[in-house]
Amino acid sequence: MNKPQKKYQIGIIGPEEINLPKNKQERIKMLDVARKVGKAAAKNNVVLITGGCSGVVEAACRAAYKAGGITVGTPGRERGSSNPWVSIEICTPIDVGDFLFAGILSCDAIIVLPGDAGTLAELAIAYRYKKPLIFIKGFGENILSSLKLKGRKSFPCYVVKTAEEAVKKTLQLLNNPV
């Protein structure tokens, strides 16, 4: 009997509703990209891991859920506190920053839409644990270089043009590890 295959688990990180861009066009564009990531994850049978909150991750979860995908959120201590599109909640004893560890460490790779302090903290933990990071052009793809981090040249970081390419690149990396 063959050993069952585990599903790939990708994360998406980005700003909560309150920290989305104030400019309406930028806000719409960011949420549209998040939705496309969620839908592409579902279509590729990938588990979408998020913090389970509002904004970018809610848009991604909604699209993934509606496309038949599995969505996971780490809302903190309280069951039922994730956005309504999270199908599985992983509760932790940490009220703030639970995704920093439980979420980030559970991801095989992470798609990044920078925009607030929480996302920056998640990005720092992902960097620290060498999780592959996929940025989408036009959404803070230069953030790591602005932080002047040591050892960045050997870090698994990629920039793609679209949300669909982000999921495709993630799958390529996971199917053919460097």
How would you sum up this structure, described in words?
- With 178 residues, the chain is of the alpha/beta class.
- It has a single domain (9-173), classed as 3-Layer(aba) Sandwich (Rossmann fold), CATH 3.40.50.
- The chain has helices at 24-43, 56-66, 98-106, 117-128, 143-146, 163-175, and strands at 9-13, 47-50, 71-76, 88-91, 109-112, 133-136, 157-160.
- A 7-stranded parallel β-sheet has the order 4-3-2-1-5-6-7, with helices on both faces.
- Helix 1 (24-43) packs parallel to helix 2, helix 1 packs parallel to helix 6 and helix 3 (98-106) crosses helix 4.
- The radius of gyration is 15 Å and the shape is globular.
- The mean pLDDT is 89.
Q: By helix and strand content, what is the structural category? A: alpha/beta
Give the biggest sheet.
Answer: 7 strands, parallel
CATH class: Alpha Beta
* Tally of structural domains: 1
Q: Any idea of the CATH topology?
A: Rossmann fold
- Apparent shape: globular
Major β-sheet strand ordering: 4-3-2-1-5-6-7
Write the layout of secondary structure elements.
Layout: E1 9-13, H1 24-43, E2 47-50, H2 56-66, E3 71-76, E4 88-91, H3 98-106, E5 109-112, H4 117-128, E6 133-136, H5 143-146, E7 157-160, H6 163-175
Parallel strand pairs: 1-2, 1-5, 2-3, 3-4, 5-6, 6-7
Helix pairs in contact: 1-2, 1-6, 3-4
